[in-house]
Write a structure and sequence with these properties.
- This protein is of the alpha/beta class.
- It has 2 domains: 2-89, Elongation Factor Tu (Ef-tu), domain 3 (Beta Barrel), CATH 2.40.30; 100-257, 3-Layer(aba) Sandwich (Rossmann fold).
- The chain contains 8 helices and 16 strands.
- The chain has helices spanning 22-27, 68-73, 110-122, 142-147, 167-176, 190-203, 250-257, 261-276; strands spanning 2-9, 14-20, 33-37, 45-53, 58-64, 81-82, 84-89, 100-106, 126-133, 151-156, 163-164, 183-187, 207-210, 226-229, 232-235, 242-244.
- Helix 5 runs parallel beside helix 6.
């Protein structure tokens, strides 16, 4: 059993939990993920590591409440435990000294981009980071991202905080300034990552995206996260989750992401009905 020692509501729908998992914390690296199972009848949930503390033996996870499993996870309180907490899984992000790096996080993608940004800064890179959300009340990790960035930009769809527009607007402004960019790293909703990839491709800038939004089983056995990268079939959970953005078939990726929408909706409805009945 893995005890929860901290829980925060980062936004109305995004939750943070810090979980005691010493063996996982000992080996976790930026870009990797864990799989948890709340109880013996629960679904396996892959979640990217948002932070780790080797001294305290804890892993921080951040998740958005979007369906039955995450709704149930959100009900767990500090002091209670998670049955299974396996990791670290997946390939760690390639952290090197690239030069000038732009790190972009959209929505809940701000959580996994944070440890990557921190690691890239520690490797000696100059960091410009951009975080975006639909509105100010959906932003989180602002101070965390600011603390590991040389330049820091906030973008909201409605202009309620920072620049009004999309993360690609802020990225475009950086590119127009003439500053040399050696790498762009983006994590967020698939359409956002696609838009970033389209923009950077026209400038010939190497771009990496994390395809954790399509992971299901997290071990490569279910095949639910198959994606074509450079014309070759890859599995986001075992070959990634990081991939060359300019090689990803985003049309296929979007189609695969929608595959289980009906089942997810039915599961959520069933959970609500059972909850209402007590």
């Amino acid at each position: 059993m893995y005890r929860i020692v901290e829980k925060q509501d980062l936004t109305p729908t995004i939750k943070l939990m810090r979980v005691v998992a010493p063996a996982v914390a000992k080996k976790a690296l930026a870009g990797q993920f864990i799989i948890l199972r709340l109880h013996d009848r629960a679904e396996r949930i892959p979640l990217t590591v948002a932070d780790y503390d080797r001294d305290q033996g804890t892993i921080t996870i951040v998740f958005q409440v979007v369906g039955k499993s995450t709704e149930e996870l959100a009900t767990v309180k500090v002091g209670e435990s998670i049955l299974n907490f396996v990791g670290p899984l997946g390939q760690a992000s390639e952290i090197e000294h690239y030069g000038n790096v732009v790190c972009i996080g959209g929505g809940v993608g701000v959580a996994p981009i944070y440890p990557i940004t921190r690691s890239l800064r520690q490797a000696g890179n100059r960091i410009a980071s951009i975080i975006g959300a639909r509105s100010a009340d959906l932003l989180f990790f602002e101070e965390e991202m600011r603390s590991v960035s040389d330049e820091f930009y906030i973008v909201t769809d409605d202009g309620s905080k920072g620049r009004r527009g999309l993360v690609t607007d802020a990225l475009g402004a950086i590119l127009k300034s003439g500053e040399q960019i050696d790498l762009v790293f983006a994590i967020g909703p698939v359409p956002m990552m696609r838009a970033v990839a389209d923009l950077t491709k026209t400038h010939g800038i190497r771009t990496v995206v994390s395809l954790n939004p399509v992971m299901v089983d997290g071990t490569g056995m279910c095949g639910g996260c198959r994606v074509s990268v450079g014309g070759t079939t890859k599995f986001a959970c075992v070959d990634g989750p990081d991939f060359d953005a300019h090689q990803v078939d985003f049309d296929e990726l979007l189609m695969r992401q929608r595959m289980y929408r009906k089942e997810e909706q039915e599961s959520s409805e069933h959970y609500h009905q059972c909850s209402c009945r007590g």
